[in-house]
Each structure stands twice: as C-alpha cells, then as structure tokens.
Design a protein that fits this description.
The N and C termini lie far apart (96 Å). The chain is built from 9 helices and 11 strands.
Length: 304
C-alpha cells in the first residue's frame, strides 16, 4: 500500500512538474507577444500617418517610422520610394539638430549599406526624406540618417538642383498647409530586372540616373505636381523638370495615391501645372509641357 502511494506521489509530482514547465513556457510566450504588440501597433498607426493614400509599391522591405515610411530594395540596396506628410507646423515650430553621423539601418539585415561605402567616392549621401523636413522631431531626424534613406547623388545634384527643389517644397508646405511627398531614385529600365542600375566604379552600389518627387496638396482644392531631376549638376529652373504623376508612375511601376477616389486620382495625376502653386516669381509660373520632359531624361542619362 505504501509502495502504491509512493508511486502515485512520484507520478503526480512528475505530472505537476511537466504542467508547471508548460505553464512557464506559455507565460513566456504570452509576455513575448505582449512585448511585440506595441511596436506592431505603432507601425500600423504610422502607415496611414505617413502614407494616407496608400503604399506606392510593394518592395522587399517596407518600414514605417516616425517621420516617414520607405520601400527598400535588396537588389538596389536603397529605397525605391520614401513617403511622408509635411505640415506647416512641422516647419514653423521647434527644430532639432542633425545627428553627427549617418548610421547603418539595423532593420536591414541583408547586406546593409555602411556609411563608409561612400567615403572617398565622388557621390554624396543624398537624403530621400530630407533632414530639413524631419527636424520637427528628434526621432524623425535621427531616422532620416539611416543609410536606408540614402541614395548616391552627385554633389552638383544634391547641393544644387535637388536642394532647391527640397527648399521649394518646404515653402509650399508653409503656404499650402499640408503636403504628401513621395520621393525615389530612377534606374535605367533595361537594367531594372538585373538590379544593376548605373553602377560606378567609385561606389559599391547602383547609382540612379535621376530622382523623382511627387507632391500632393492635401488642403482643398487638392492638386498634384511631380518632378524628375537628373543626377547631375545644373542651373536650370525647377519648372524645366516638371512632369505629371502619370509620367512618374510609368517609369517606376508605382501607383501613387491609389486610395483616393478613382476619378479624382485620374484627373489630378494627368495634370501638373506649376502655375497652380505659389511659385517664387511670375517668371517661374509658365505652364510646362510635362510629358515631354520625362522620357528624354533616360537618353540624357545614357550620354553621361
């Protein structure tokens, strides 16, 4: 009888031990999920905040961060698009300082770009989401210095035409109130499948031949404008690079603002008239023949 009780006790003890171990694993799993939920919830909230009218294009990795969202390509080792909302209050309030250095993005685990890959080359680390647009928030401006937000730009483009365009868009954000801005690089279409781009001997990643910016004025009456800027130096006026949003979609395969009403989206994307925007001077308000500018840029890139 005592032997039976002892066996029963041993079996019960073993059963309870297993149950306790299972319960501990279950608790650990639940706590792990609970810890992950805030980050997932935050990403879910950031997507409509940064991209209120939809994701432009599916990519290898889509990251939603404070300040902006981006679609990253492993082939090109850079973002194919970066999108964010720029408000007047972002530019008229407190400003946070730029960080001292660029950083490798910890979210990119497959062959991430290192800041040193640009050292000694003839290219600048060109922001896609500009630091000047992100200075309203310390996390946002820190995020803008991840290398996933960087694309190789010639100094003449980065410090010249591109800088003027970024400055103009900030002026429009102040005058119009609220803009949705999407930016990205352009690569020669014949090399798009291979992911080579215009690879330069002085840098270890593909170099875009041009960059695009698509801007939606979210303050009624809504309007759109788009630009394709060659990756070179130039003193041309910005309106020379005005194209339609439709033109950029044809070159990139993106579908910008697809959550707008279809009729409204089609009408806005077909027209890009700089005279509808508050341009700096009357000399810069002439309506451009937008479609004529989009495609010669490919030929122009091939001559460089």
């Amino acid at each position: 009888m005592r032997e039976r009780k002892k066996r029963f006790f041993d079996l019960s003890f073993t059963g309870w031990s297993r149950a306790a171990a299972f319960f501990a694993l279950l608790v650990s799993f639940v706590f792990t999920l609970a810890a992950a939920e805030p980050a997932e919830r935050k990403e879910a909230l950031l997507q409509p905040e940064n991209l209120p009218f939809g994701v432009p294009k599916e990519t290898d990795r889509i990251l939603h961060r404070e300040g902006f969202s981006l679609g990253y390509s492993h082939k090109y080792r850079q973002a194919l698009w970066v999108g964010y909302v720029l408000k007047k209050e972002h530019l008229t309030g407190k400003k946070f300082r730029r960080p001292a250095a660029f950083r490798t993005d910890p979210a990119i685990t497959r062959n991430p770009v290192q800041p040193g890959e640009y050292t000694g080359t003839k290219f600048d680390r060109g922001h896609l989401a500009p630091a000047g647009d992100m200075s309203y928030s310390q996390p946002a401006i820190l995020n803008s210095f991840f290398m996933s937000n960087i694309s190789p730009q010639t100094p003449g483009c980065n410090r010249g035409i591109w800088k003027r365009l970024e400055t103009q868009i900030r002026k429009w954000a102040v005058s119009e109130g609220c803009l949705c801005v999407i930016t990205g690089p352009l690569f020669p279409p014949e090399e798009a499948e291979e992911g080579k781009g215009e690879e330069d001997g002085s840098i270890s990643l593909p170099v875009p031949y041009a960059f695009y910016k698509v801007v939606l004025d979210m303050t009624p009456p809504m309007k759109m404008i788009a630009f394709i800027v060659p990756n070179r130096a130039g003193r041309e006026r910005l309106q020379r690079f005005v194209v339609t949003v439709d033109d950029v979609e044809k070159l990139t395969g993106c579908d910008f603002f697809d959550e707008l009403d279809d009729e409204v989206e089609e009408q806005l994307e077909r027209h890009s008239d700089i005279s509808q925007w508050q341009a700096p001077s009357p000399a810069r308000t002439r309506k451009q023949s937008a479609p004529a500018r989009a495609f010669p840029l490919e030929k122009e890139a091939s001559r460089e």
